[in-house]
Amino acid sequence: MDNESTRPRPVSNGMEKIVSLAKRRGFVYPGSEIYGGLSGFWDYGPLGVALKKNIENLWWRMFVEDRDDMYGVDAAIIMHRKAWKASGHVEGFQDPLVECKKCHRRFRADYAEGECPECGGPLGGVKQFNMMFKTHVGVAEDESAVSYLRPETAGGIFVNFKNIVDSFHPKLPFGIAQIGKAFRNEIAPRDFIFRTREFEQMEVEYFVRGGEWEENFEMWRKLSLGFLESIGINGASIHELEVPPEDRAHYSKRTIDFEFDFPFGRKELFGLAYRTDFDLTRHEATSGVELKYLEEGGNKFTPHVIEPSFGVERIILAVLQTAYTEDKLGNEPRIYLKFNPAVAPIKAAVFPLLKNKPELVAKARGIYTELKKAVPQIMWDDNGNIGKRYRRQDEIGTIVCITVDFQTLEDQTVTVRNRDTGVQERFPISELEAQIRIS
Ligand code: GAP
Predict the structure, then answer these.
(1) Is 394 in the pocket of ligand 1 (CB under 6 A)?
(2) How far apart (Å, rounded) are the C-alpha atoms in residues 401 and 105?
(3) In this structure, which residue's CA is closest to atom 22 in ligand 1?
(4) DSSP state letters, 270-302
(5) Distance between CA atoms of residues 309 and 178, nearest Å
(6) Is there an atom of ligand 1 within 6 Å of 270 CB?
(7) What mean pLDDT comes out for the span 325-349?
(8) CA distance to 64, 243, 295, per residue, from 271 (Å)
(9) Closest CA to 107 of 90, 91, 89, 129
(10) pTM of the predicted structure, to 2 decimals
(11) pLDDT band at residue 213, thresholds of 50, 70 and 90?
(12) How many Cβ atoms from other residues are within 10 Å of residue 328's Cβ?
């Protein structure tokens, strides 16, 4: 049965064009769409998956593989319920909520000032609402079987601190990274994939000596901005908000929200927090297992933590928004996604000029197959005429289109058309791979 919490809201916040393109071209679809949708849940289509993987792979390369002080984990989404008591989420992970006395719809308290935004009725007092999704593990449905879908990936990192120390004996400072799903039963999911109930996070917990948190905080601030640059989000579009103590999460002594100008306002894109020794201390006290770091020389202490935390959906939204461009090419209006090559889901498309000429199709197929071995994100396209193919490829942000024509059969050259300029040049087939790699 649908109700106010499960029924999706129409998007009407300046994102309409992006939402429509995302659906039309197979980036992001509304979750459970054939059943009318489910509020706060979205599904990725083939191009959305490719874009997401490109972003996550770059993050993982930059923050884990290219460094000697980082360790990756992939922890279970459902953890022992005591872990969420220890982290403070059972008691503290609340959002204030108000209910309309007339239509009984519920809203986040900060979205509803005065009267009900839906029916104009009077709003009741503020109640606290825990945002974790509760579930039962096993057949018993009593209190002892209760657990939660993790509201942040960080939890799975802290419970593995001791495992990493025991397996790898890392020297401080070192970090543990994880990319994975997080779930929050948001009262008011909204703004396309900006605020969802199921989303992905890319998080680092970087363990440092308590006295060294400030320089490490600064290091992660710079690295995080560097990551954004590498996926095409310019530093000038990011605004740093020093979060005041009363607005910080319960575990944080300093937080910067990195905000981005979305069409619906300047909002948090990702965060950087100094979590002190809160988590390890609490998990140690709750589990009874010592979670300290033993230095050479016998000194034992609880490390402090710097945490850069990225929401993948918000990064994707910022990437889509940054890339979305409307212009005129040869007096024809067009829409294209000016993706940074590093994240573009399709690097090149290969076409036969005419699909009813077997010799052209065979030649184009051969080129496509060879290129795909070297650069997997290559697409075959023989639908419609060349103009339609260019328009379609522009809309999905394909960097170059390669057309095989009759001249190709004679001199082994093809036309390479650039997405951003529309300029077409001929190149020998033997140079295509290099062309794609530098584009
Ligand atoms: N471990 C710290 C943490 O989870 P947070 O500020 O609650 O901190 C971190 O979340 C990031 O996760 C946010 O900056 C945002 O990018 C993303 N995020 C949080 N809630 C979200 C939601 N409901 N939908 C989409 N992304 C969300």
Answers:
(1) no
(2) 50
(3) 195
(4) EEEEEEETHHHHHHHHHH-----EE-TTS-EEP
(5) 10
(6) yes
(7) 95
(8) 18, 10, 30
(9) 129
(10) 0.95
(11) very high
(12) 8
